Amino acid sequence: MIISIDKKELAEAVSSVSRFAERRSTTLPVLAGIVIVAGDDGIKLRATNLETGIDRKINGTIKDPGVVALSANTLREITSSFTGSGQLTLEHGGDTVVITTGTGRSTLKTLPYEDFPILPFPEATAANFSISGSLLKNLIGTVAGCASPSSVRPELGSVLISAEGGVIKAVATDSFRLAEKKITIPGLNSQFSFLIPAKNALDIMQTLPDEMIEVRSDDHQCAFSCPSMMLTTRLVTIAYPDYAQIIPKSFVTDATVLRKDFESVLKQSAVFSDSFQKVRLGFTVGDKKVTIQAQNNDVGDSSDSISAVVKGDEIELSFNFRYLTAPLSLITSESITLSASGIGRPLVIKGVGDASFLYLVMPMNQ
Amino acid sequence: MDRIDPHELWERTLTQVELSVSPANFNTWFKDSAIIKIEDGIVYIGVPSQFFRDWYIKKFNTLLLKIIRDISYEYRNIEYMIVKDVARKSKEVKKVARPTVELPLDDFYINKSDNLNPRYTFDTFVVGSFNEMAFTAAKAAIERPGITYNPLFIYGDTGRGKTHLIQAIGNQFKKLYPNRKVFYLTSEKFSVDYLDSLQNGTANRFKDKYRQYDLLIMDDVQFLAKKDKSAEELFHLFNSLYDNNKQIIFSSDRAPVAIADIADRLKGRLSSGMTIDIGEPDAESRIAIVRKKVALHGITLTDEVTEYIATAVAGSIRELEGVINSVVCHTQMKGIPPDLLEIKASLRSFSRPQKTVSVKHVVSKVAEFYGIDEESIYEKTRRREVVRPRQVIMYILREDFSVSYPTIGTKLGGRDHTTVIHSCEKVKREVGSDTELAKEIQDIRSLLV
Q: Are A237 and B25 an interchain contact pair (Cβ–Cβ within 8 Å)?
């Protein structure tokens, strides 16, 4: 195989593809590698860790077609150190690949590519729709951080994507808090729902371009494709908890505060939070303010309040401050509403005038 | 044709597969798969994802088919299924979430520089009438280390809390005098250390190492018996520490005089300070122990359960702890402490056969030991050479096999139970002071095992 590629383009492609290579060393060596295929469809880079996989096209000229697998780590380190523009040549011979740039020359050992698995491309039996890449990334990227990092309950470690009546929803929860993002896609009539492991979803969203993406899935696999690349991931096939029933229908107290104020007060209280990261939120109707208190026996305590529009009953609730700060970066509106539904019942955070995003967090034991 | 269950078939297939593919391939592709079911000669293999199914079909289908056909012609074909995550999970060991109390990790933590286990402290030590003396002596010893009781020698049967007590002394010493050095070791470790130093020619370094400590705690000194060189080394070490008023603490399962096969000069030194025994815990103490131990794990048992455990578990405190650990485990799994019925059921597995012995057997062994006629024991003679063995027999029957006083009397030629009580008390008294007698009884015990 002899091919020549633009340096910058290769560096960019390798850094995105290497994300999908296996990082643990215990498995098949080729899974820690990137396979470069030069054939009739042009030049393609492929990598997979058996959870997710990527097949990405790259521009270049093929002088002699062939297939070769190279260590993803080595390739990424080499290509990221390239400076300047220009072409480079990859030449495969025996069990090595020689990379020649204008001035330099490096020789890399190849990996046995015969063991590289086939990237599954699902039949579009369950879902098939097109969406712009930037919208999709916003949809999934917003909620994915709220999924559980543990793999004990795979459904909680996943992002639920469901569509009904032209609206696509993405939901993630770790059983302490829940985030839901909705997007309307005109002309989407189908109805579907599937679960993508959150870690895979994040990797894929970071890689997808902003152009139109075709999403297709069957019961076990989902693929995101556009002309330049195809990404695929395994799906989780467990029933997702019926989350709609835990979103309160009515609230006892509503408070509207400025997002910036709330953020800075939380940041200050966090210093005094205890080992459970607990802060207390108090809603006062008369004084029109929201009070945030924190106490730590080793550090000290603090109390601060921000002006707010408070309606309903006075109430005090305790929260893990991390769960309160998490949604603030996901909301774009200037002001947010905090809606409490009672002692021991969830608090709902929304952006004012933004119906597309909802964040729900459970209070801590008093 | 025997019907093999899917699990067994898969295990047998895997052993074959392992031989024909590389380890990396095997680990990657076969670890998470299993045979789900066998129906009409078709074997259904469950795999985690489509990656796996495609690859199995492409690469391993022929191999797997050949292997399962070799096992039985019954199997005609293989189908691959992507199994739901739930199905796969259930095959793995069920992880029970334990939201309540976790076993604290520091249970297993041992400080390398002094060998002490921080778990053993005075706070966790249960004091009852059986160990009150030892506890007080231990407290007194560290008030003025090296002066009040030096050496402090604590003995008692296995599982009475000797190690706990002496380690607690070490831990308390560390707390009181942070700048002084403590070292805890077993006599066995001491002798291994000594032999190693001889082999490596570092005997001097060995001597220096042990002479630097302000408090040396040696557990189970009885194991130095017959290790003459190690015992001699301990003798010198003892002298050096003692002369410098460094505190030394020993534990053993018997009194210094009763340790067979160690040099008299060392025996004398061991008993030169304070010698205290830890007796058998009485019923109240056992209940207190159970209470305290379960309370440490944040569990409260009902009074009747506590009492039942304390009385039903015969034997050492260590066995009691074993039962308590199973109670703790039970509570963490189910969320509630076991009730009396559940305890009774689970204790059945802990009960052990009662140590029984025929009186005749003991009599014949003791008579043989003293070289007298077996019959004379049963006779009403009061010759000196018979009286002593007879008393020893009574003592052993009572102490080691808990035979009742009246039974002993009847079996040994129809004697009154008060006679038996007197004899037992007498021997018990004399064992403490009469080395000869203590040694004899020790030797007889070894004959009876």
A: no
